[in-house]
Prior knowledge:
heterodimer; A: mainly alpha; 70% helix; disordered N terminus; B: alpha+beta; Beta-lactamase; 3 domains; seven-stranded mixed sheet; five-stranded antiparallel sheet; 19% strand; elongated; disordered C terminus
Amino acid sequence: MANDYVRQMPHQGSHSMARAPGAAMRLHIDVPLLILLLLLTGYGLFVLYSASGQSMAAVVRQGRFFLVAYVAMFVAAQISLQRYARWAPWLYLAGVGMLVAVMFAGVGAKGAQRWLQIGGFRFQPSEIMKLAVPMAVAWFLAERMLPPRFAPVMGALTLLGIPALLILQQPDLGTALLIASSGLFALFMAGIGWRYILGAVVLGVASAWPAWMFVLKDYQKQRILTMLNPESDKLGAGWNIIQSKTAIGSGGWEGKGWMQGTQSQLDFLPESHTDFIIAVLAEEHGLRGVLVLVSLYLLILLRGFLIGLRAQTSFGRMMAGSLTLTFFVYIFVNMGMVAGLLPVVGVPLPLVSAGGTSIVTLMAGFGILMAISTEQRMVAR
Amino acid sequence: MPQKIALKDQNLESRVYGARTVTAVCLVVFALGIILARYYSLQVSQYEIYRTQSERNRVQLQPLPPKRGLIYDRNGVLLADNSPSFILSVVRERVQDLDATLAELAQLVPVSRSDLERFRKKLPRTRPYDPVPLRFRLTEDERAILAVNRHRLPGIVVDAQLLRRYPHGELFSHALGYVGRINEREALEVDETDYRGTFHIGKVGIEKYYEDELHGTVGYQNVESNAHGRVLRVLERHDPLPGADLVLHLDYNIQKAARDALGDRRGAVVAIDPHSGGVLALVSTPGFDTNLFVNGISTRDYSALRDSPDVPLFNRAVQGAYPPGSTVKPFMGLAGLESGLMTPESTVADPGWYKLPGESRRYRDWILRIRGTGHAPQVDLKMAIAESCDVYFYDLARRLTIDRMHDYMTPFGFGSRTGVDTTNERPGVMPSSEWKRNAIGQVWYPGETISAGIGQGYWLATPMQLAAATSVLASKGQRRVPRLLKTLDGEPVTAPPREPVTATPEHWAAIFDGMREVVHGERGTADYLADGILYEMAGKTGTAQVINIAQNEVYNEEEVAERHRHHGLFIAFAPLEAPTIAVAIIVENGGGSSAAAPIARAVIDTWLFGEADPTIGQNDNG
């Protein structure tokens, strides 16, 4: 392709190690990241089998999602960063357009309007925004002087604020949170001044009260109250938290054994194969299992940061940092909420919880990370 | 925009990015550290708490209610047993929306308003995860409907429970009493642990008196169940100890004979074995079907029983206090002999009436209106008892005085509860001057002594008291607390003995002689009982006035309303030479003793020969 000039660029400088590009490099695959992801998704399937009540069907279904997700990752890895940068504003505008469409013509379930129906196909525009927002913010900032000054910061905040608010009113607090933070992380990695960060923290604390009064819906407030005191509503909203804490705590260090978790196998634990799957893992594999999982996550995060450090362009760096930190937010929010540290918001445990769309989006994100990684390697040679 | 790019400082950007990455890594590690600290706290520091919590989730302690003890008559006839009945219960904690579930259940099986009321009342007083009963006695069809719909209704439990059954409901209603659902007051009184899973408790009669023995000891089992309350397996089981089986002294045949002889009249029959103190029959009519009470009687059925003028819920045998009438004469006679005021041979002049010295009022003998004169010019003890001579006993009472009468009668059990092993027994009244001062606040009048001499006036006795007193006569002074219970779980139970009544053998013989004449004498007041009799029976007739008859008025049975007719009484024991049964009978508004006496013959015949002579009392004048 004519635009793909970076990859065709003859290598410059003194790096004349005549290392033949391997298969992985030719396929633009970051091998350490791929291995870590395979380990994680494998572990995830293993836990899911037990969490779904030993349902092979659930595992096969999830396996199919993984297959699609790995293909998405592979495809995303083949696209050059320049192209991502060029697509970023258009993808963003299209995404915002669809979010507006959801407002008026969306379909939904359980009181939330999140899907767009086109023909027989249903999808969630907010999933696209999980990639489009960091991309757009990175694109916007990369065009400007870094670290960003006041005007670009405001511009970037507007870019991430519009879709975040649109999603918040669907309502989908979890996704809005993820999307806003993905943009904020791009800003953070761009080197936004500490005074902005400090200012934002002060503003955040100051706006807690108006947010409580005017923005949060009743069920969202309930979740926060429930988190603070699950005993207040033992059989209602508090049930989930009490049961998940019980599942985690009763796992102890060693765990009760695979498929031996009484909390999950006897249906005391709600949502055991989706948002609360970490409780199953903690119950059956104990703190040991949790440590293995967190170690895998940490290695993936570190790999992401390393890719960012080695990236050659501002756009690549900011994308890598944002994608990595957003992945971290998934882990932190999910593990925190299931353990009763954070209010329950609909954030899955990344690449372990059952569910299609988030897995595909996440893996596409890792594909972009690989694209950044491959660019750096090409440049390096 | 080439200028802009030229202006970008790649090195600065890189350095800033590097610094931010370090910050981010620190942040991530710190945050994951917090998360891990939380998991460590839950899984290691608080492990025991959550492990216990999880066990409590998984494992449930289920009470296993004990089987209530069975009740038999002396010959092994089953009087109370347990039959399986299916109960629909709801576990509040497992139901998402209680109102919706109740509404849905009401669509599937009939649920009455009182079912709902009881359920709502019980709900707040139930431990978490204990089932609360909603409907009892599910039919087979209802069970099938619930089974089909069960998957849609989490928290719904259908289980079998043994329910009390009385095969001879009405016949033994007052003898046994009944069980009913535990009410709020009882729930506070019973041991909470022992009654977990038990819904019924003895309400009255034997069932209440021996509640502790009949109930047994609760067992329990640990079961593993899932979040929907489905029991997956039993982990541990401690069987309940069934309640003790009771064998009663009651004899089905005698009970039935007494009941049949009473027919549809109101009355009571109590029969006691003088040797053991065992109660052989305890009948009070009308009775009622005790099975109605087991699962909560309907309001309509209950008001019918409560408001009936025949008061079927009233146990006449122990609660009914009647003037004993002339049935007291043998006891009075013995008191007279023992006091030395008279001998069996001493006589009293009988013109048919009696006057206190210095008073004008005439106390009539019952014979006066029939013959226009007394029983005989001179009446001795034997004739006085056999013909029920009032004048003889008027005179004795006057000489004995009320307080000495009271002291002689008290050892026979008059005026105090016999202590029989059933509920609601009343003490009756054995009057004395002191009693009258305390109870009524008046002094005793000499005329009242005269009435008391023939068992009228303030003197009130229950059929149980009369039977117990008769039993003392029959055994020549041996006195035991009457007992319904014969053996408890196979172990014989002896009726506690009491201070015996002592009298010289000649005096006992004189009383026996008089009572024998009542039945076997030519002019005995119950001579009709002797027709075809194969043994010797001692008896005494009695009549209790329901309304006071004015001085010159004459009681005419035909003219007074049925409710105002005299009560007929009869006491008896047999066989004379070695009595094995003593009975007391009252027939309310029976008109006279002839309503009661044939019942004694039927009861004693049945006791001695296994069946009643069906011709007894039928040809006689009522």
